[in-house]
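thought: fold this chain, then report.
action: predict
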Amino acid sequence: MSTSGNVAFVTGVSRGLGEALAARLLAAGWSVAGLSRSAPATLAGPRFTWVEADLGDVAMATAAMLAAMRRAATPMPARALLVNNAAMAEPVGRMGELAVGALAASLAVNLVAPTALANAFCATFADARIARRVINVTSGLAGRAISGASLYSIGKCGMEMLTRALAIDHPEHGFAAVTLRPGIIDTAMQVFMRSRSSEELPDVGMFRSFHDDGQLVAADRVAEVTIARLVDRDVESGRTYNYAELAAGT
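observation:
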């Protein structure tokens, strides 16, 4: 990883919002380490490092990203950013219908791994001279459960508490942690959700209407607004930001 003055670590860069965020950070001159299971097709160059890892294996993925963080910490960067973006929608089903292994895998990716990566980030970039920021990408479902997708809500709700915990643990100047609820993005996860049966996901009609009514937003647009408002400007540490409000300039 060839470092510049700014270093970023982004999960889920093989597609969707993670790929779009990494691409825009690279275009802005950041050095980026992107973690995903499969190689991103559009990300390359001397300032990009692909970290091949599965967040379902929390220990392995954390060790791989920690190694990238330690390499990027010398020489000391001016700014360091962690974006916990990767997530999984599976398994879909009501409580009482979920296999234990699938339940554990979901929480590993959606909650345990982001917590472990935030812990590694705080340990590696502890010098107060570095402007440090963590962005935890969650969902409107962090605030409510819907039948068949409540496990996803549990993980995202936990991530929002992670944001508040980071803000409390690191109140020092130069550190900030925020949550982004990115709205309804046109991604593979939306395709997956609207393709479920009503038996699996009783509220599947809501996801189908997002598509049919043209409510989906391009990932690159969300990335553009996220970087402009949550990376390049001051933020309130511990706060949850909604994409629609950010896009409207509020």
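thought: worth noting. The beta strands are 6-11, 31-36, 48-52, 79-84, 131-137, 175-181, 240-242.
final: tokens above.
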